[in-house]
Amino acid sequence: MTYFSFTKGELLTLLRRKQDTMNALIFFLMVVILFPLGVSPSPEFLSVAAGGIIWCAASLAILMSVEGMFKEDFNDGCLEQWLVSGLSLPVLILLKVSIHWLIVIVPLLIMAPILAQMLFLPMDIFYVLLQTLILGTPALFLIGTIGSALTVSLRHGAVLMLLIIIPFYLPVIIFSTGAIRAAQSGMLYDGQIAILAAISLASLVVSPIMSAISIKASVS
Amino acid sequence: MSWTWFHKLGSPKWFFQFASRWSLGVFLSGVVLLLIGLVWGLAFAPEDYQQGNSFRIIYIHVPAAILAQSCYLGLGVAGFVFLVWQMKMAPIFIKSVAPLGALVALIALVSGAIWGKPTWGTWWVWDARLTSVLVLFLLYMGVIAIQNSLEDKILADKAVAVIGVVGLINLPIIKYSVEWWNTLHQPATFKLTEKPAMPMEMWLPLLISSLGLYLFIAGLAMLRMQTEVLNRERRSSWVKEEVLKNGI
Amino acid sequence: MHSSISLNISNLWIERGERYLCKDMSFSLSGGDICKINGENGAGKSTLLKIIVGILSPLEGTVYYNGEDVSIHRDLLHQDVLYLGHNSAIKSVFSVAENLRWYFPNASDEAIAYALSVVSLSGYEETPSSQLSAGQKRRITLARLWLTDKPLWLLDEPFTALDVQGVSSLEKRMRDHISNGGLIILTTHQDIDASLNVKEINLTL
Q: Which domain of life is it from (chain A) (predicted)?
């Protein structure tokens, strides 16, 4: 196994398992739709709440798509092969998360303008939303990976993983929606964007190492 | 400085013997201090000029809130120690302290709500500190949940250590973000801290009850850890001797 | 020809649940050896293999590969090892050939076709692995033995899923491997060809 063949394999797996990614995206769409139906369809409410709605829905969808990330590798014995491959486990994990991120975030970004229209989000605010999504979602994926690695050996680990991971998502959600709200009231939002980038970078350092520890412990 | 104490602390046998000498004393002195602090605070400390008698819940709320944070700090440090040095006592510490931490966090939440009713007029406000205690409570629940869900004990130990460390890194970020979020939401509603510095008669019982709760929790944690040590080391010869000699 | 390799197990204690699988076990192996781990079901044969390869940690004791402690220099071992565990480690979304390419990206088409023919999977190259039986998946895993150039093989029950002809070609492959200076450790219930000069390790319950 090489890093390249590993990456290629992961990409191939995700492309052949399109339905898994699709499910996460449809779930995202459904959560977004719940808000106008459940709270209020008035443009005044929605245009203010749109950023928060999209972010909450995206967080849940990402948790869903990350949750089963290592499950199949664990069940078919491939995780053992990663461990003895002579390749660095944190790097393998990082490659895997990056591919997952790419595969989910691209369609999400394509869906975003449509949803923004449906939620009456003004165009200039929409660009801020895009920035927060691009800079904030890596942190969500990376943090979620730790939870996924910890619960990989459990048959019904999904709820447990949500329980562990959601508190760690709060800062990302707070700063993303904060940036959007700041932009809406005409204030500068560079600070929040910078903090989001910082959280993502910090996760980039911590997550692969912690996930590797968790996977090693889960396999044994 | 000699590091022998550090290595000794890692040995369950040494800890057990240390704890069996100290745990009860620490626990009882905690109870006594807590009682002194509470009675003094609840009955004898002067009334607050703004809030009247309702402020007295501070003698429960503040120590509990401090303890909730300290316990998580300890948990995170223990997790780090376990991941780096594989010290056997660290997961025992985490397992014993997490439920206590959850309990004090819950006490802080409930007392905060009770305090909120007369002061703010509602049981709950999305106050930065209340919210971060709520998140803290959720973090504890996560640690407890994963500890109980994983059948493989070695994996469970690793898992709580990982969560502890990630939480330790995250806790300042969460706290900061919640505070920042709150100031954005509702700038300076009613700041309890902006009174003139507390008079001595009010402040001293608070200190005593905080210290008391520290010792109380430390004593409880030591007792819980002793049980856990006995359970984990039940096959070793020193535990057999211990049980035969002193009973359970 | 592999450069000479050695594997030393010293004072190994293995624990599972409440009981010791082995106490203070030591043995040495070097290139050219085949070592068979004997023991009943549940005696810990697979566990011992996993400890040697570094997936599990022993309670006490050390595994040395070429004189280096494996728990510290894990990479040195992992560069040289081919480990076939209890699970097939076959991705069901890949075709048979893609699975082998995942492990050996530089293997030629001929090499892969040959490896598959040995385990009687000729013509299955493009078949999705999800359509194969457990035994066939197992044989894809075994095909890796004909593609690898790693000197140290750790094989967990390699003979299951093979027919008589398959067994004899695997034995031939193992004979070639050790005559090139390779080292094989395996668990099996089957008797191995006596001419292979097998060393045996016994695990008792």
A: Bacteria
